């Protein structure tokens, strides 16, 4: 909801930070079939409630960095959930992607950030 002089909420860290192996910060979430839906639920609810920004997690799912995962960002968050706000990433996350600066930036942008 828009309110004059209000605050813009950010839902973070999309998605599965709580599912990383051994609870390792910025780790990999080796999710079993059906487990992703559990981790997505709060974000679907946040989008339905009107959140306008989402920050992508430092983590990975099945060894694929979330901030370069177009399936998560474009297809699920923006497509299935209908999120039309701003998707952001912490700069250190982008530095963890393979390649040089331009390649890393392109991977994140192409994923939907």
Helix content class: 25-40%
- Report strand order across the widest sheet: 1-3-6
Rg calculated over all Cα atoms: 14 Å
State the order of secondary-structure elements, H for helix, E for strand.
Answer: EEHEEEHEHH
Shape: globular
Q: Which strand-content bin applies to the residues?
A: 15-25%
Number of helices: 4
Count all strands and give the number: 6
Distance between the termini: 23 Å
Describe the largest sheet: 3 strands, parallel
Oligomer: single chain
Q: How many structural domains are formed by the residues?
A: 1
Outline the low-pLDDT stretches: none
Mean pLDDT: 91
Architecture overview:
The chain is of the alpha/beta class and 113 residues long. It has one domain (10-111). It is 37% helix and 17% strand. The protein contains 4 helices and 6 strands; from the N terminus they run E-E-H-E-E-E-H-E-H-H. It has helices spanning 35-49, 70-80, 91-95, 101-111; strands at 10-14, 28-29, 53-56, 60-61, 64-65, 86-89. The strands form 2 sheets. Strands 1-3-6 form a 3-stranded parallel sheet. It has a 3-stranded mixed sheet with strand order 2-4-5, with no helix packed on it. A hairpin with a 2-residue loop joins strand 4 and strand 5 (64-65). It is globular, with a radius of gyration of 14 Å.
């Amino acid at each position: 909801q828009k309110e004059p002089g209000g605050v813009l909420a950010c839902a973070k860290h999309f998605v599965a930070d709580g599912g990383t192996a051994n609870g390792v910060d910025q780790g990999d979430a080796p999710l079993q079939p059906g487990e992703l839906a559990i981790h997505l639920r709060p974000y679907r609810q946040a989008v339905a409630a009107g959140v306008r920004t989402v920050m992508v997690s430092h983590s990975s799912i099945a060894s694929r960095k979330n901030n370069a995962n177009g399936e998560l960002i474009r297809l699920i968050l923006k497509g299935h959930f209908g999120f039309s706000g701003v998707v952001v990433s912490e700069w250190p996350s982008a530095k963890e992607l393979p390649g040089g600066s331009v390649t890393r930036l392109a991977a994140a942008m192409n994923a939907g950030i």
